[in-house]
Fold this sequence. Notes:
By secondary structure, the chain is mainly alpha-helical. The protein folds into two domains: 85 residues, Orthogonal Bundle (DNA polymerase, domain 1), CATH 1.10.150; 177 residues, hpI Integrase, Chain A, CATH 1.10.443.
Amino acid sequence: MDNATLLQQFLDDMLVEHGLSSNTLTAYRHDLEDLKQHLETTGRGWIAASRDDLTQWLQGLMRRPLASASMARKRSAAGRLFRWLAANEWRDDDPTSLLETPRRGRRLPKVLSEADVKALLAAPDKSDDLGLRDAAMLETLYATGLRVSELVGLTTEALDVGYGFLRVVGKGDKERVVPVGEVALDLLARYQRVSRPVLLAGRSVADLFVTNRGHGMTRQNFWYIIRRHAREAGIRQELSPHLLRHSFASHLLNHGADLRGVQMMLGHADISTTEIYTHVARERLKEVHRRFHPRCQESR
């Protein structure tokens, strides 16, 4: 069987049997297409690939300007594919089992200051239907720490205004319940009552957030929205929806939130993923100390 067909079967199996998200599958396809091209230059495919072939591929990747996280993801994708090939008896071995995994650096996520978040949330014009929708989306994102895919994937049934929570479907179709603050709840209620019917113009869709054409909001639409309002708010930092998720977690911990609770709200399977935000909080404390402690100021 040719490389392309085997790759597609692997991706189909990852979707059906393991419930990997579309974003993860897209990344896997991109990474494994890269490896496939390398193997084709050697005249071999998935079934005949050797450990040396994979080592050469990794060495080639290291010469590219790739982040360590990207390197680790590519290595992980290759490992998963070859384990699948062995489990399905296309191969007798997994040539990635003895490969050295590239070290993954621990880069601290960037976050917005609380003042910048406040300016961003105040930017949309709430007297306008689109502005009220944007305000509800931004406030919800910061109030809950959702991933942007989770935000735009919300349905009207996901929101329980009375109890003050959202039912969210995250990675791997895992469902979790996330509390929502009063400000976000008020905006969501106003948006559903006032703006959403106008934007739908008689259409009926399950999506909670809709465009001015009455369709469900997309990641691309929201990316444009958040960057536009960031400019209006005078925020110079490059902004993305995920930056509000980082800010949500960091600000909660700065104000004394429990790490395990933040983990549950973010939907992290492993608490070690959440722990990175404690490092952000410590770095922020160091910065404040350097800026304002009188002995540090005297040394400048």
